[in-house]
Amino acid sequence: MTHQNRTRSSELYEEALQHIVGGVNSPSRSFKAVGGGAPVFMKRAQGAYFWDVDGNQYVDYLAAYGPIITGHAHPHVTEAITRAAQNGTLYGAPTELEIQLARMLKEAIPSMDKVRFVNSGTEAVMTTIRVARAYTKRNKIIKFAGCYHGHSDLVLVAAGSGPSTLGIPDSAGIPASIAQEVITVPFNDLDSLKLALERWGDDIAAVMVEPIVGNFGMVMPAEGFLEGLCEMTRANGSLVIYDEVISAFRFHYGSTQTFRAFPNQAAIEPDLTALGKVIGGGLPIGAYGGRKHVMEQVAPLGPAYQAGTMAGNPASISAGIACLEVLQGEGVYPRMEELAIRLTAGIEEGAKRYGVPLTINRISGAFSTHFCDHPVTNYEEAQDTDTEAFAAFFRHMLDQGFYLAPSKYEAWFLTTEHTETDIDRTIEAAHESFRRMTK
Ligand code: PLP
């Protein structure tokens, strides 16, 4: 089995540290959570593979934290981007393309009567909160521990000491006065949500949730959780916001709101939805939308201001349309799911053979590996896992040419471009990694 030479990556990291804070443009790309050292500097990607600056090849399970669901440089997406570039990349005036993508989103996500495009998931989420506040004329939001909603001030706030305690900032630079507008409760815990609503009810503009969690591993809502959440929130006169930046178009063509695991679809529709990642086909994008009467709060129709120089740019929109067109293909999602079933079964078998405690949460073609011997249904359980075992596994996989996200909380994503051969090679490498971890 290979031991890679990554000399050039190390050199570039040293250089990057001189110019770019921490050497990376997003902290999740650093290897801090898996023992530190130089991250791998990539040079090229095609399909399910990466090649780094030292010439090493990797099978990619990161998919750029989700967006690259059709693999890298997919010909249909590439052609759409090329065409857009040739026609001018930014107009600052509306285009027909924006209408086309908005239609596609609305058809797939029935709770979205009206859509607005922005540039990132962070922006989309941030604006849903503003719109909910404008609509309800209330200020506070409730969110769930461990759900990540981008890096705007309000949602970078962690739990207080109990379910109805006000938040404390999760990052320096966030005033306590802002953190006080956020209440964090445990995911999958309706009793805590009820307590928080009882205590702060009149002030709550919205309850914000990742309806299927992708940020402390993949975690499904317990049966009845989303129904209960929607019911209680609405009874309180607050809005429900679904952050579907990861979940939309990841598990099937649509969002959690129509995912087949939930028979009672109408009851789990939110008032506002935030989108990003997959809907841009690998270019920067975000979108938010919801019921007409709520969305009419947004300028130029209403008093809630939101704007963007780059919003709806033809390249991102074209890439998004092309990506969704690929995902509309026959059998695309079942195939990713089949591969994920095969892969997780193989990994589980390896963990068992070498006696490594492992819980896998798989949803369709995405899954997370938690090094523990208990189920993972909320953030506390996801934290209570073996960080060092994950780091060792990550490094052994990397060494053999398999690129996972460098954090125990991140998911593995299948793409339309992974093959059975990739999967079988990954299983072999996972067995070898477990062997090395236990020898
Ligand atoms: N919401 C969720 C659920 C996310 O996973 C992310 C990013 O990972 C965001 C929002 C923020 O999106 P972006 O990184 O595009 O700003």
Automatic annotation (TrEMBL):
Q: What does UniProt list as this organism's lineage?
A: Bacteria, Bacillati, Bacillota, Bacilli, Bacillales
Protein name, please? Answer: Glutamate-1-semialdehyde 2,1-aminomutase
Question: Coding gene?
Answer: hemL
Q: Does the keyword Zinc apply?
A: no
Pathway terms, separated by semicolons: Porphyrin-containing compound metabolism; protoporphyrin-IX biosynthesis; 5-aminolevulinate from L-glutamyl-tRNA(Glu): step 2/2
- CDD domains assigned to the protein according to its UniProt record, in alphabetical order: OAT_like
* EC assignment: 5.4.3.8
InterPro entries according to UniProt: 4pyrrol_synth_GluAld_NH2Trfase (IPR004639), Aminotrans_3 (IPR005814), PyrdxlP-dep_Trfase (IPR015424), PyrdxlP-dep_Trfase_major (IPR015421), PyrdxlP-dep_Trfase_small (IPR015422)
Species whose genome carries this gene: Paenibacillus arenosi
Cite the GO molecular-function annotations of the record. glutamate-1-semialdehyde 2,1-aminomutase activity
UniProt entry keywords in alphabetical sequence: Cytoplasm, Isomerase, Porphyrin biosynthesis, Pyridoxal phosphate
